[in-house]
């Protein structure tokens, strides 16, 4: 794809996911808004508030003035505090207020994306508090498509409404997470030079990827199938997603992961598998 086609693909993936979130919320009874999700400390309401907050900040809206409680156990870093503040601010809002704000924010953000004059490689500010940095416009759109789809899946699991595991946003998430595999295997898990690790993922979005660690300890990933890998993981796509996004601990998901080969190395890889903050 050309750079402009990539930008459009990320925009379309974001649109499909955020509209799916809105559709999930439309028939939701009031008590379901407080259901816990796999994001520590966050309910269904909180995830929707987070989505609104990020899109609003990208629109240039000022961050809310709010004193965040100091006793929130799931807030363990300055970045977490930055993310939590606009979420906590909305905890007193009613479902009608939140759905109305989401709808209005999506309308404004969609219009901004249609009218955007940025080129794919233009640098823009990624608003993340202490982790803020300049990234390309393409990377920003990819990050938003990834984040919204992952949170859509958080909501679906909490509400027990599965779906969209093979949507455009799912493909963006797969590519984003696979890109981090060399770091997980070679750097974080410390796989020695010459190691080969295969990930065989089944389900609505099935794929197979091989990570190879070269002579100087650097990892790379490709789609080829290696003979007799040191470790081979067999798991379904949703389990892969939950592990890679830190939604479930490896020991809890052990029943859904089959490992062939070096079990000690496999345990180290799974212990460092989460790529999202």
Protein described:
It is a single chain. The chain has 277 residues and is of the alpha+beta class. The protein folds into 2 domains: 3-159 and 166-172, dinb family like domain (Four Helix Bundle (Hemerythrin (Met), subunit A)), CATH 1.20.120.450; 180-271, 2-Layer Sandwich (Nonspecific Lipid-transfer Protein, Chain A). The protein is 47% helix and 13% strand. It contains 9 helices and 7 strands. It has helices spanning 3-25, 44-58, 78-89, 95-114, 137-159, 168-179, 181-188, 237-244, 263-271, and strands at residues 123-126, 133-136, 196-202, 207-213, 219-222, 231-236, 257-261. A 5-stranded mixed sheet has the order 5-4-3-6-7. The protein has a two-stranded antiparallel sheet with strand order 1-2. Strand 3 (196-202) and strand 4 (207-213) form a beta hairpin. Helix 1 crosses helix 6 and helix 5 (137-159) crosses helix 6 (168-179). The two termini are 30 Å apart. This is Maleylpyruvate isomerase family mycothiol-dependent enzyme.
């Amino acid at each position: 794809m050309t750079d402009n086609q990539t930008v459009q693909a990320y925009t379309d993936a974001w649109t499909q996911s955020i509209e799916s979130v809105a559709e999930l919320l439309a028939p939701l009874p009031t008590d379901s808004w407080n259901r816990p999700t796999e994001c520590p400390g966050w309910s269904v309401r909180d995830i929707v508030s987070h989505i609104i907050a990020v899109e609003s900040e990208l629109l240039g809206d000022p961050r809310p003035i709010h004193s965040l409680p100091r006793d929130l156990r799931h807030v363990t870093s300055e970045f977490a505090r930055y993310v939590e503040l606009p979420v906590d601010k909305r905890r007193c809002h009613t479902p009608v207020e939140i759905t109305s704000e989401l709808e209005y924010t999506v309308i404004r953000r969609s219009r901004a994306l249609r009218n955007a004059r940025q080129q794919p490689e233009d640098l823009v500010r990624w608003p993340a508090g202490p982790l803020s940095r300049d990234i390309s416009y393409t990377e920003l759109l990819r990050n938003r498509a990834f984040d919204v789809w992952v949170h859509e899946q958080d909501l679906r699991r909490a509400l027990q409404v599965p779906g969209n595991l093979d949507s455009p946003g799912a493909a963006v998430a797969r590519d984003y997470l696979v890109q981090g595999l060399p770091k997980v295997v070679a750097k974080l898990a410390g796989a020695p030079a010459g190691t080969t690790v295969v990930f065989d993922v089944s389900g609505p979005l099935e794929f197979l990827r091989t990570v190879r660690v070269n002579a100087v300890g650097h990892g790379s990933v490709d789609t080829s199938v290696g003979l007799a890998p040191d470790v081979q993981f067999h798991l379904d796509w949703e389990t892969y997603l939950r592990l890679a996004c830190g939604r479930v601990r490896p020991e809890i998901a052990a029943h859904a992961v089959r490992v062939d080969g070096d079990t000690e190395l496999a345990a180290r890889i799974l212990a460092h598998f989460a790529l999202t903050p």
